[in-house]
Amino acid sequence: MAIRRAGRRQPNGTRSVSGKALAAGHPRKNVDLDSPEASAIPLRADAAPLAFVSWLGFVSAIGGEQNTPREFASEIESLNRSPRMTSRAATEWRYEKLTWPEINEAIEMRKVCIIPCGAVEQHGPHLPLDVDLMCPGGIARGVGEAMRDKVLVLPHIAYGYTGHVMDFPGTINTHWETFIKQVLDVTKSLAYHGFKKIILLNGHGSNMPNLDLAARRTNLETDAECVLIAWWNLLTVDKTFLPSWRESKFPGGCSHACELETSLYLYLDEDGVRKDKIKSGTIKMNDEDNPFNWVDLFGVGPGALISWTSSYNDTGVLGDAEKATKEKGERVFQESVKQLGRFIDYYRDRPIDVRGRHQSYKPKMPIPWGQYDALP
Ligand SMILES: [Zn+2]
Question: What is the pTM (predicted TM-score) of this model?
Fold first, then answer.
């Protein structure tokens, strides 16, 4: 393997040695990379194990061959964009595993914060109560491990809005107002520290209206940006994915503890699925075959009557769980991780949107409702 020497090209044709060389105990200095002095720079793994792991990953990711000057320059640029390759902030994707100085570095690195939001809620006789934690948490972990230098995953918002499911034992409800306030407390804390890009990665359908409001309010009440993504909607980005994956009928086959959730859970934790108890369930309103009143994870009728779950279902399984397989779950996991990664690459580099005031006079009072007003 050819190991290259890192350094930012200086106007005089030398490179300032940074990253790996600094990690190995070298002060920043300008070195001509073709000089004997540069060749003598020891690349010591023992000096900075974490940096070396990153470096090895970096080298192997780009092929391990000597590359052209242009490729070299762009690789060095991307290396230098990560301010401290020795820091855990460059390799740790779990927010709560960092220290406070490393959080400052993660902010400098423009890391995107992912907050998995779920629920502890019944999912029929065959799935545990933690489905809506496992699914977004598993996808967030997949992205975190694949994009360690760009992402931080926070601990879950674990208790969701499930008041309509309280007829089934085990379900824990959080008052909608408490729920929105808790999410806002987290997003505002992140914004206060300096994070600018936040994703609410939701795993529980009935959290959606509340999380939509939490995301909107984060955008209006802080200087950070916040986006809400339901993990299952990541499967709609590639228009060919669902038609090649889904076997259950639309609408209704994918709703709750269904073909989709059961498949992903089988992939994430097969032992947790009570396979002998998998049985598909119907949704009474869908059975009416009315063009207005129907539900599915991938669409909802224009007049859907969403009320107590026990009023339109008896077992807690809404959908075609019998069509679930572990292999289909693996496809779902890989597709979700891939599409979320694509979104993060776009979102992280996208400049923050800028407001413009259209009043012909400057308002005399501060903007109400706790909204953030940075306009002059
Ligand atoms: Zn669920």
Answer: 0.78
